[in-house]
Prior knowledge:
The structure holds two protein chains of two kinds.
Chain A: H1 8-18, H2 47-58, E1 69-70, H3 83-89, H4 92-95, H5 107-124, E2 128-129, H6 136-150, E3 157-160, H7 166-176, E4 182-184, E5 206-213, H8 224-232, E6 236-241, H9 243-246, H10 252-255, E7 259-263, E8 279-283, E9 296-300, E10 306-310, H11 317-320, H12 333-370, E11 376-377, E12 386-390, H13 395-404, E13 407-408, E14 411-412, E15 423-427, H14 434-446
Parallel strand pairs in A: 1-13, 3-4, 3-5, 5-6, 6-7
Antiparallel strand pairs in A: 2-8, 7-8, 9-10, 11-12, 12-15, 14-15
Chain B: H1 54-65, H2 88-93, H3 97-100, H4 112-129, E1 133-135, H5 141-158, E2 166-170, H6 176-182, E3 187-191, H7 201-207, E4 212-218, H8 230-239, E5 243-248, H9 260-263, E6 267-270, E7 290-292, E8 304-309, E9 318-322, H10 338-375, E10 391-394, H11 404-413, E11 420-421, E12 430-433, H12 441-460, H13 462-466, H14 479-485
Parallel strand pairs in B: 2-3, 2-4, 4-5, 5-6
Antiparallel strand pairs in B: 1-7, 6-7, 8-9, 10-12, 11-12
Amino acid sequence: xxxxxxxxxxxxxxxxxxxxxxxxxxxxxxxxxxxxxxxxxxxxxxxxxxxxxxxxxxxxxxxxxxxxxxxxxxxxxxxxxxxxxxxxxxxxxxxxxxxxxxxxxxxxxxxxxxxxxxxxxxxxxxxxxxxxxxxxxxxxxxxxxxxxxxxxxxxxxxxxxxxxxxxxxxxxxxxxxxxxxxxxxxxxxxxxxxxxxxxxxxxxxxxxxxxxxxxxxxxxxxxxxxxxxxxxxxxxxxxxxxxxxxxxxxxxxxxxxxxxxxxxxxxxxxxxxxxxxxxxxxxxxxxxxxxxxxxxxxxxxxxxxxxxxxxxxxxxxxxxxxxxxxxxxxxxxxxxxxxxxxxxxxxxxxxxxxxxxxxxxxxxxxxxxxxxxxxxxxxxxxxxxxxxxxxxxxxxxxxxxxxxxxxxxxxxxxxxxxxxxxxxxxxxxxxxxxxxxxxxxxxxxxxxxx
Amino acid sequence: xxxxxxxxxxxxxxxxxxxxxxxxxxxxxxxxxxxxxxxxxxxxxxxxxxxxxxxxxxxxxxxxxxxxxxxxxxxxxxxxxxxxxxxxxxxxxxxxxxxxxxxxxxxxxxxxxxxxxxxxxxxxxxxxxxxxxxxxxxxxxxxxxxxxxxxxxxxxxxxxxxxxxxxxxxxxxxxxxxxxxxxxxxxxxxxxxxxxxxxxxxxxxxxxxxxxxxxxxxxxxxxxxxxxxxxxxxxxxxxxxxxxxxxxxxxxxxxxxxxxxxxxxxxxxxxxxxxxxxxxxxxxxxxxxxxxxxxxxxxxxxxxxxxxxxxxxxxxxxxxxxxxxxxxxxxxxxxxxxxxxxxxxxxxxxxxxxxxxxxxxxxxxxxxxxxxxxxxxxxxxxxxxxxxxxxxxxxxxxxxxxxxxxxxxxxxxxxxxxxxxxxxxxxxxxxxxxxxxxxxxxxxxxxxxxxxxxxxxxxxxxxxxxxxxxxxxxxxxxxxxxxxxxxxxxxxxxxxxxxx
Lengths: 450, 500
């Protein structure tokens, strides 16, 4: 009876009121032959035992805070998380609240989400943000749903850049498998080519073009021309953006993007072995009715006070059922709050500092590592805080050596790109010191040509 | 009020509070040689984020938190949402540094703790539900449903059975069921409920043919009833070659009572944020693992956690990732809601054990039936028999213009969160009440007393209900204004000049 606050005496009084003798009598509708199975599970632990057991399990991991020096990114990044965020998230008023369907007693959550939406609009430059998606990959897949719905299913092709995160491309394929959508763009485009190379794939059947900013290899492109060309063919363009980079770089809105989505984990959310994280989704007002997910809008209450409510709910599954643009219900509410607190407490100054530190340190690393004999930068384009390093040996081999020295090496690009054998994707954030970068260079130099 | 009156501001927005030049958390100076910046054409000209000190931010969010109702502050009888108490120890275990600061792409040898936990949780969920395999990847219940219908589609397709386009969905289903099926273009056929709240077998029989993908059943259903004919329903669908999807939203009533897999259900999602006490977070994150029977295991999303090297005398087993043979693909990036969902649920199940899990279901059902017994003389309960973890009453009275909405809002004046209202759609003015097992008898009595008093107020002073709530910090909202004016952002992009 771990968390059940009912005494045996109270239980008996309640059973009497109901008119049955035992708890088991409440389950007569359940087929007798399957009723009350013996579950083969370990016996219950007390809190003291559970705390020790979980601590023991967690100690079997090597973390990037203390055990390992990390240069691994590829979609999830090791950033500093200010203490204030978790102190606020651990307020029971926030984390034990339900979805704010009753606005009179949910203004805390509603105003916080409204502010999150506004902050995401600042970062991306877009007019409208929803309350969140599960992660960056599913947000990108929902962008396909938006575009597909916008053209009422008449445009059935999605052009996806090959330098979009491989897992995002996987998720888009999974999401669209029943929709009759063709996913193009993954062949016939060279990774060295600029973004305009995608234009040749865009035709009058294309509903959406998806590019990443910075792209999976860390490269920064101005997509203005690609977006103009795609628009000329009637297609929409979705930019998958890194929010840390957006504190420094030209906004996708300024390039003409129709939808800007991405992974907001860098905004104060722990990596947590991959989740839960936070997908953001922003677009122009004209597409708001085709957008999935919850939206908070400003209004007034009957006392004349400024207040907030979930709005345009008629788009959502609980009203529209099978005609809804998406089935999304729960999203990442608490983490959207966390990201809002991160952006608030860093503000204009702190966000700018983080972006600049990531940029400077990554460029120092690229400069240092590319000078080691046998190593070099694979691409010459401008990059943000990730770059791809050509190595003299298979990355798996190099990473094993780095791990022996307590370094978590970069992502092995050959896993997804057969043409990128011996290519390592290295991520550098404000958490990496010059000392760590120099140590990486030192160990990499050991793994030079045989 | 008139259009020209400015609304009263109770708490300014974070933008309103900004003052140029204030700083909160700042960062150390760079320790590397200056590398310049990207070309000017790639830079943004301004970053109009708010400027505040940390104390400003803390006070703001503290003020906001006080406007929220929460499980920690009171009773939340939200039908189908299972708003149970969230144990505090789970908040500590999920934040252990070993879990918090691991990267999803680390070599498996460096994250054996994470993988062992995931493997064990997969095994536990299999045992609890009676399924042959479980994926932990889906991010929420609806995401699990989508995973499930993709698996059903892939199963039929793999057998060359391509004419199946019809998904049967009882009229009491959650809206996510048809929406999930709609996302892959299936035709939805609604199956009505009979007079006892069960799936109408006659209509079901008419619809069972060789175009059926399957049925999506919620059992106990959203009326709070365990379907008395569940085995027949499952058999009829199986006999026409269809599969049975179980919506696991109401699993709290079944822990240690019956295993959905034993009943013949083929695929089901779990809502870890309902059944296994993951907090709702004001709207997520949730976590929606999916269990399947043996014949569907090859279709699960990739990756699953498995043993990649068996244990031997010296070494424990090595856990790693495996890809099911005919996998539908990846549902999201990385491995599911590990920290927020899986670690908390693991802790919760470990602390309950087999007997504790059965207690959860029994006391959840006890509490629901006790409330039903206390309220049935005052509120009409259209499907009135022993219920499971919840029941649905009508929030209306003969000769009164009081509606379920008014009752819901008036409950706030008694410091209760309202029940789910206007759902399920098959009950007029529905009030759907799910107390969960973590409420004591005093709370249940106080809630029943409040509802009985409100029923009386509905007769004697209906205006009190129409204008409720009164004691909350905010009153009823102008929802039409919100939708018409569509102010979704307190910062206007047109004020931002990219080239300034």
